[in-house]
Design goal:
Elements lengths: L13 E5 L5 E5 L4 E4 L4 E3 L1 H18 L2
Antiparallel strand pairs: 1-2, 2-3, 3-4
Length: 64
Amino acid sequence: MYPDKKFGPRKGLEGPFTLVNGRVLYYDPKEGQYYDPLADFYVDNQEIALLHGLLMRRIQTNSI
């Protein structure tokens, strides 16, 4: 499913989740945040909310 091994399963993290822009994130349930393995930092929850909103708008637009 993920030919590039850097985006395979990671112990203690959920995912990987590929966003519409190609960015790959993992969810860290202990931290309650999404982790970006390429940048090696946790993504701000406001940014996640923005990305989620964009995705929902795209889904709604494409389903009409």
